């Protein structure tokens, strides 16, 4: 185990450039195409006409975004919320849920969503993360709760989780240590506070520049949401932390407050020599997520008005996953 992020397996083996990530996912897509062909999934749809409803079969193309983790934000958000739901049932710390989400993302770089049961993947990632973060869950309790959430997809035999655990560890090459932006966020705020106090001019009110605890909570919430994106495969934890701070500034404060705090924060970033391009890239990942999640765009409302997270289509992705596993079970029979 490495106590230093800069010498850890997290940095050496699981931080990619965008081009590297695209190459990995392209290879996975080629494998899917070779195995399943173009129209890989047939689903029944109820189409309404003037007289009555007619059920027709629809072919899902392999080129469509559905059930491709890199392109389907419905799938990303759904898996994240299911993992959160399972973790909150056991009142686990957020860092355990976040670790599990990183395991899930790393696993889906090597295995197609079409080749595994995502509900077992969610359950096993949480089980493994709880052990790595030294807060283990009893496997029988976990299996019982998971089965109550997804009875069609989770077997009553809890050893299935153990089997998947070995598979998961193998695919992750036994690299279990994950570094998160939560600690860097606290350190950045501490250093920013010192910087603001040292650089304030005579006659200025220091309260106009400091960031309070409520702001820390908003930044923390944005970091939690960042696990839906590729940020934790592309950027260092401190980059994600500072990006969340800047985005919270945009969303939280009034124009006058924002001008004071943003100006001082920009001075701090320039002074600390943090990579600006990486911050821009990370913020773009987050904004794309929120624009999809809220259904907002420049035409209908400003991005910084609200983040009402109810625009993604959970029923559709749940239906697709059901049809996927139903189709596989029928084919196996």
TrEMBL record:
Entry keywords, A to Z: Cyclin
Residue ranges of every copy of the Cyclin-like domain listed in the record: 81-170, 198-288
GO molecular function: cyclin-dependent protein serine/threonine kinase regulator activity
Gene3D superfamilies found in the cross-reference section: Cyclin-like
One GO term (biological process): regulation of transcription by RNA polymerase II
Domain of life: Eukaryota
InterPro entries: Cyclin-like_dom (IPR013763), Cyclin-like_sf (IPR036915), Cyclin/Ssn8 (IPR043198), Cyclin_N (IPR006671)
Family: Belongs to the cyclin family.
Name of this chain's protein: Cyclin-like protein
Natural source organism: Hanseniaspora valbyensis NRRL Y-1626
